[in-house]
Design brief:
Helix content: 25-40%
Number of helices: 8
CATH superfamily of the largest domain: TPP-binding domain
Distance between the termini: 12 Å
Number of strands: 9
Radius of gyration: 18 Å
Largest sheet: 6 strands, parallel
CATH architecture of the largest domain: 3-Layer(aba) Sandwich
CATH topology of the largest domain: Rossmann fold
Mean pLDDT: 91
Strand content: 15-25%
Low-confidence stretches: none
Strand order of the largest sheet: 3-2-1-7-8-9
Length: about 230
């Protein structure tokens, strides 16, 4: 069974109503990124950071997977599928995808500031005074700017075994995630789905660029890949 690796970004969740955080002015929901997504911002103003992610969490709980999320699940009937997402939402999982790796953390989880491996599921607001079992303040389970990406090595391992790569809704400008495309075998088929694709058609020998929204483009690619097999 062939391996399909799918790399997703904010564009696939935008159609569910999830804000993409960063606007055209570079601000995250009106905040400088360093205020709400860095260890420096956390140490400076924990209340601000917690409020930012509490609002994102509340929004996530009010939306649902869209057609793109749901259609990707159909590939699992004929392929071995792994999704590597830059998104911190759980919409892939809610749609039914079984193998999802979150590069940048998960909004519905929190972790200990003392022991990062102490991770808890969390759907309510996170407040000052919410402690882990080691009596240390809990923080969002999000990879902030300036922090290591702990799942990167696993993502590289998965990507290097891809027989087909599908990239959906990402600008391919955020590193180290954007570098994953360089770990696939040079001649494998690569599909890039984005209404404003940041990759040129001659970037890779077997690159197919689909300049459409996630839902429309995913349906086209999934239909093609399913039709390829008996």
């Amino acid at each position: 069974m062939k391996n399909i690796v799918i790399l997703t970004g904010a564009g696939i969740s935008a159609e569910s109503g999830i804000n993409t955080f960063r606007g055209s002015d570079g601000l995250w929901e009106g905040h400088d990124v360093m205020e709400v997504a860095s260890p420096i911002g956390w140490n400076k103003n924990k209340e601000l950071v917690l409020d930012f992610y509490n609002k994102r969490r509340q929004q996530l709980l009010q939306v649902a997977p869209n057609l793109a999320h749901k259609t990707l699940v159909n590939l699992e009937n004929k392929y071995n599928v792994n999704i590597i997402t830059q998104n911190v939402d759980d919409l892939h999982e809610r749609a039914g995808s079984k193998n999802v790796l979150h590069l940048h953390g998960e909004l519905l989880k929190v972790r200990s500031t003392k022991k990062p491996n102490l991770i808890y599921s969390w759907k309510k607001d996170l407040l000052i005074g919410d402690l882990c079992e080691e009596n240390s303040q809990l923080r969002p389970h999000i990879v902030w700017f300036g922090e290591e990406v702990p799942m990167l090595e696993k993502a590289i391992e998965i990507t290097s075994k891809a027989d087909i790569l599908i990239i959906i809704g990402t600008s391919m400008q955020v590193y180290p995630a954007a570098n994953l495309i360089n770990f696939v075998e040079p001649k494998i088929p690569v599909y890039f789905i984005d209404p404003k694709p940041a990759i040129q058609k001659n970037y890779l020998p077997n690159l197919t660029v689909i300049a459409e929204n996630a839902s429309t483009g995913v349906v086209k690619v999934v239909t093609e890949l399913i039709d390829l097999l008996p």
